[in-house]
Amino acid sequence: MDPTRLRRLLADVRSRRLAPDAALEQLARLPFEDLGFAQVDHHRALRTGFPEAVFGAGKTPEQCVAIVERIAARGQAALVTRAGDEARAALLARFPKAQEHALARCVSVPGRRRTRALRGRVAVVCAGTSDLPVAEEAALTAELYGAKVERISDVGVAGLHRLLGRVEALRAADVVIVAAGMEGALPSVVAGLVDAPVIAVPTSIGYGASFQGLAALLAMLNSCASGVAAVNIDNGFGAGVLAATMLRRLRGRAARR
Fold first, then answer.
1. CB neighbours of 99 closer than 8 A, spacing ≥ 6?
2. Which of 79, 133, 71 is nearest to 102 (CA)?
3. What is the three-class DSSP state of 54?
């Protein structure tokens, strides 16, 4: 349940279109729903503005479907991240309106209400083609949460002229997400070119000494550029949510002026 739906529920009770007991029945299931193997948080959209997402890795296809069923039953949009091939197939079979995002390894199911568009723009940048799955997870998440996203791919520091050719697009963004593996230097370079916050996403791409993304993470944490904040290795979802949250705060400030 999101704030709009809750306001409608309260308005229906006040206008006597809905009996208090019927409203109470809906509210009784609001905080969370116990499925035995999962506690589905229906209250999250009220608290944070974004519905609960489902981390698909480690879950069976049946568990993913069952959780999304309960989220969809409340009219909320659902996003399943890191969903394997079998889980994606099961979700697509169960939900006719579901969309597969194979590159991002995600499945999205639209809610009853269209997501409200956020002010501003997010640029999602990746250093190399191998970083694309993580970058696309970030871009998809930000889009599903209402952001306008521009994708800038394969502009790593090994060929800096590629990045410099996209400076105008970078400077037009209100938030920049940068996904990079190998040495993880790209966020520092980007942060030196823009006046927007840069969300750095280390990826588990690289040869042995990259230590599955640890080298990139440490490089990003030690960035010499200001305005860089790093999320966990391969956490495109977290970067997308953070970017959308920043834009939502911009919308909130504009509405109060």
1. 107, 108, 109, 110
2. 133
3. strand
**What region, left, alpha or beta, does residue 186 occupy, with left being phi > 0 and alpha being psi -120 to 50 degrees?**
alpha
Q: Select the CATH number that applies to the domain covering 121-253 from these four: 3.40.50.720, 3.90.1310.10, 3.40.50.1970, 3.30.497.10.
A: 3.40.50.1970
Contact 136, 105 (CB under 8 A): no
CA distance 240 to 236: 6
Residue 52 gets which letter from DSSP?
A: P
What is the distance between the alpha carbons of residues 94 and 1, in angstroms, rounded to a whole number? 22
Number of neighbouring beta carbons within 10 Å of residue 118: 23
Cα 100 from Cα 120, distance rounded (Å): 26
100-145 pLDDT tens trace:
999 999 999 998 878 888 999 999 999 999 999 999 999 999 999 9
The C-alpha atoms of residue 201 and residue 57 are separated, in whole angstroms, by 19
Q: Is 15 helix (H, G, I), strand (E, B) or coil?
A: coil
Cα atoms found within 13 Å of the Cα of residue 94, Cβ hemisphere only: 20
Beta carbons of 167 and 220 less than 8 angstroms apart: no
Question: pLDDT (tens digit, 9 = 90+) per residue, 199-250?
Answer: 999 999 999 999 999 999 999 999 999 999 999 999 999 999 999 999 988 7
| pTM, entire model | 0.85
> Treating both helix axes as pointing N-terminal to C-terminal, what angle do 61-73 and 85-94 enclose, rounded to 10 degrees?
40
Annotated domain spans of the chain: 25-109, 121-253
Q: Which of 119, 138, 106, 148 is nearest to 231 (CA)?
A: 138
Three-state secondary-structure class, residue 109: strand
* Token duo for residue 88: 């994606």
